[in-house]
Amino acid sequence: MNGEPFRGFESHPLRHLWNLESGISNLKSVVCRKTPKASQTNMISSTRKKTVRLKSTRALAVALITTAATGCFGLRTFAQKRRPVQHLSVCGNPNLPCQTSATFEPHDLPFRVPKNTIIYDTELFYAIVLKTVGTSDQDCDVFVPERERTGTQRLFPDHKVFASRCPEPGNLSYSNTSSQHRFMAMYAGTTVAEANRMLAAVKATGKFPGANIRRMRTSFNGT
To answer: Left, alpha or beta for 220 (phi > 0: left; psi -120 to 50: alpha)?
Structure first.
């Protein structure tokens, strides 16, 4: 038994395997001690939450971009579909033909209505209000008689003399006037200068002391 000590076990393959298993066990112990199970669970939970937040943020961004794009497209489509309002021209001279698709009463101020038109009104114009009658919009039987209107028309043959009626569907309505009264007026053009000349001519007759200038539009009631 003299000489070098016996090292058979140290060099045996099982000894190396045991050392490897021991090292792995020690490494697991160290890792587990430095990172408790609760911390590991928290880390996993935190990572999942960050992932969920990231996905939510991306989804929100996509939704916002989609909404903005849709809104821009909708506005562009609306702008393309919307057409400028066209106000129709008035037939102010009763001696000239009035090309219109609508039917007007003799006391109406006619205007040019294209075919297939549903909603419309006229351009702004000036009128000389000659007379007013009535005290309520329910007094539909009170208006300037047609005989009086035609007699006034003979005084001003080149300018349409018109008279309003009760504000009912199908009748003409006139802006910048009171629904409580019916009136008789005369078309006086589209400029202030022309309206002033016509007012002077009306006053020169001495028949309409309360005559005054009014700027208005006309359209059919219920449109």
So the answer is: beta
In 90-217, which ranges are continuous DSSP H helix? 146-155, 192-205
CB 91 within 8 A of CB 98: yes
CA distances from 16 to 13, 20, 27 (A): 5, 6, 17
Q: What's the whole-model pTM score?
A: 0.62
Task: List, for residues 171-193, the tens digit of each pLDDT value.
Answer: 999 999 998 899 999 999 999 99
163/165 Cα distance (integer angstroms): 7
**Euclidean distance between the first and final Cα of the chain, in Å?**
127
- Strand order across the 161-163 sheet: 161-163, 182-187, 125-133, 212-216
DSSP assigned state of 57: H
